[in-house]
Amino acid sequence: MKVYLDNAATTPLDPVVFEEMKPYLLGNFGNPSSIHAHGRKVRAAIEVARRKVANLLNTSPSEIFFTSGGTEADNMAIRSSIASHNIKHLITSKIEHHAVLHTAEMLEKEGVKVSYLNLDKNGRVDLAHLEELLKENSASLVSLMHANNEIGNMINLEEVGEICAAHKAIFHSDTVQTMGHYVHDLEKLNVQCIVGSAHKFHGPKGIGFLYLDASHKMSPFIYGGAQERNMRGGTENVYGIIGLAKALEIAYEEMDMHETHISSLKKYMIEGLKEKFHGITFNGVSDDLNQSLYTVLNVNFPPSDKNDMLLFNLDIKGISVSGGSACSSGTDVGSHVLRELNTPIDSGSVRFSFSKYNTKEEIGYVIEQLSQVIQLYK
Ligand code: PLP
Fold this sequence. Notes:
Elements: E1 3-4, H1 15-25, H2 37-56, E2 64-67, H3 70-85, E3 89-92, H4 98-109, E4 113-116, H5 127-136, E5 140-143, H6 157-166, E6 170-173, E7 193-197, E8 208-212, H7 238-253, H8 255-276, E9 281-282, E10 296-301, H9 310-316, E11 319-320, H10 336-340, E12 348-353, H11 360-376
The protein binds pyridoxal-5'-phosphate.
Pyridoxal-5'-phosphate binds next to α3.
C-alpha cells in the first residue's frame, strides 16, 4: 500500500482541475497581452478566473494579483508594503514560513527593525506582546501566518486584524495553509494582504495569488510588462491561473464535507497513536481540533537514538510523511519551528498531513506500520 500523508507540502492535482486546464495547454495558447483573437480569448479566461477567485473570497477582482506561488506573494506583500509606505518596523514570529522569515532577515540587514513576538511553549503567539509593540512603534507591518505549516497552530485572523487596525498597522497574513480549507471573507477581515498557493488545495504548482486591499497602494514587485495591472510583469501562467480558480471553486463547494472527513481522520489517528504508543506527545496544539489546522498533525515519538531513521523506514513501507517543513527538504538543517518549541532533537517528530483523498483504511495501515517500525527500536 502507498500512503501519501504529506499534503501540507503539496496536494495531488484534482483530475477535474486538470480537465479545466487542458485547453489552455493546447489550443488556447495565445498570449493574453496580444490584441488579436487568440490573445483576447485567453485574456478573457484569465479575467473570468480572477473574478471567480474574488467572488469566493468576497472581494473585488481588482484586488487579486496572480503570482508564481505563495513564496512570491509573501515576498511581494512584505517587501512592497515596506518600500511603498516607508515602514521602519516589522513584527512577525520565529515560526513563520521561510518565505516570510528569510524576507524579514534580509529587511533587517537593510535597516528595518524586526521584532519577533513571544511564543508560549506550544508555539501560540502572545497577542498582549503584539499590542505592546504596536503601542511603542507606530507605522508597523505585522506579518503572522494564519496556520503554521508544520504544527498546524492557528491565529484568529479577526482578532489580530482588529488589533492591527486599532493601531493603524498594516496586516499581512500568510494564509497558504488555510486557503481552500477555511472560508476567508475579506469583506469582514481587517487585513491588507493575504496569499494563496494552488498546489495546497489540489491545484497546479507554480501559481498563487496575492490579495491586496484596494486602499493599500503599493509599488510593483517584479518590473517588466504591464501584466497584473503593472504590479507583476511577466507573461501569465495561463493554465495555472485557470487551474487555481477551478481548484478554489471546488474547494469552496466541497469544504464542509472535506472538513468533516479530514477532521475525522485526524481524530482517528490521534486516538490510534495514543492507544498504541506510550509517551507520545503532539507538537504545538496540533492534537487540539479546535485550535489547529484540521489537515495537520505533528507527532513527537519518545526519544530514541534511532529516531533519525523514522522517516526513512516509513518511506520504505510506502508511507510519505515529513519531518518538518518540506519546503526546505534535502537540506538537513532541522525544523526552525520545532526548535522554537524546544522539542528535543532525539525525539522523532513526524508531520502527518491529510487531504480529501485519504481514507480511514490508510490511517489504520500507517498506525500499524508505525508500531512495527518503533518496535524495531526496542
Ligand atoms: N507559506 C506557507 C505557510 C507554506 O506552507 C508554503 C509552502 O509550503 C509557502 C508559504 C510557499 O508556497 P509556494 O510553495 O507556493 O511558494
